[in-house]
Amino acid sequence: MSKNIPIKNIFYLLIYAWDRYQEGKSINLEIEESPDLPNLLSNLLFKLMCRVIKKGLDKDYFEENEISSFVKGKILFNEVFKKNLIKQGKLSVQIDNLGHDTLINRYIKATLLKLKKNTKLEKNNKKNLSLILRFLENVKSANDFKQMEKSIKLNKNNSYYVFPLQVCKMINNITIPSKNVGEFIFKDFRDDELRMSEVFEKFVRNFYATEQKIFRVKKERIKIDAQGEQKFLDLMPSKETDVTLRSKDKTIVIDTKYYKEPLKEHYGKFKPKSDNINQVSDYLKNMEKLNYPDNKAEGILLYPVVSSQKKIERTSGMYQGHRLTLYSLNLNQDWKKIHKDLLNLVDLN
């Protein structure tokens, strides 16, 4: 279903999911001119790396050994005597050099090189990537992307790398080798239910955190209604909401679901899975012992769809003592309408 989601909407989904909406919308990407996801991400990474270069590439000190006629750094006496350097009037020294060959830059360079080998990348985008690679000439490249991702640590001095690193991770997660040796293609992550479920959940949560001030927004663990010894309680299932909106007089729990076919036919009628409804209801029932307004929390079951799918027009009612709303959000419509629909969903328009 998801190949019908416009590239522009995919871009907005991603920058909200990455919690980079303000920074993302400030970048002039000419999104409508991007024919597909590889070219969109390539253009985005190019623009982000231009900003990084302007601020200054990440750098660190590296130990290097060299033969020198001058005393500098740390003298390696064992090497001096072993190589009989004194007779030559030289010393073996270890010095600290400041350079750009850091793990962050290695990861980005490796991603750029992989991206250039994508078979669908337009010439202009390949040219732009080559321009960035010139600034990384003295940086080594590596191919162990997963290990590098685990090892990268950011600090206050290089925190501006967060956004480009998020883009790189997305690129590496959806890139696979092609039949031609040395070339790569993108698998369309929009058809990956697991990955898109994660993106859609984060998008909805960060959208509400960004676009309104009435509710506090979070993902939270719900204390289940269970009693017994700790050993027993430790074996009980944990419950965590996708999105919880909370104001002084209202609590809303939103459960997001992303399926290629969100509704199933049952005796001639298309309905959501009963497990989905029961899951939201279970959250609300376990909140009944909490203080107001949590004990009167409302639930929303939210599905993303495009025009070709069966969808649920917004409908609400009482289910097991709590107000429950079912709704299908059309991701194939203009972005301004998506924005409006999400605010309307929680009665903010």
Average pLDDT taken over every residue: 85
Order of helices and strands: HHHEEHEHHHHEEHEEHEEEEEHEEEH
CATH topology of the largest domain: Trna Endonuclease, Chain: A, domain 1
User: What CATH first level of the largest domain would be assigned?
Assistant: Alpha Beta
Radius of gyration: 27 Å
Q: Please indicate the count of domains.
A: 3
Largest sheet: 6 strands, mixed
Helical stretch tally: 12
CATH architecture classification of the largest domain: 3-Layer(aba) Sandwich
SS content category: alpha+beta
Kindly estimate the percentage of residues that lie in beta strands according to DSSP.
Answer: 15-25%
Gross morphology is elongated
Quick one: how many beta strands? 15
The rounded distance between the terminal residues' Cα atoms is 29 Å
Spatial strand arrangement across the major sheet? 6-9-10-13-15-14
Low-confidence stretches: none
Helix content: 25-40%
Keywords:
349 residues; alpha+beta; Trna Endonuclease, Chain: A, domain 1; 3 domains; six-stranded mixed beta sheet; three-stranded antiparallel beta sheet; 12 helices; 15 strands; elongated
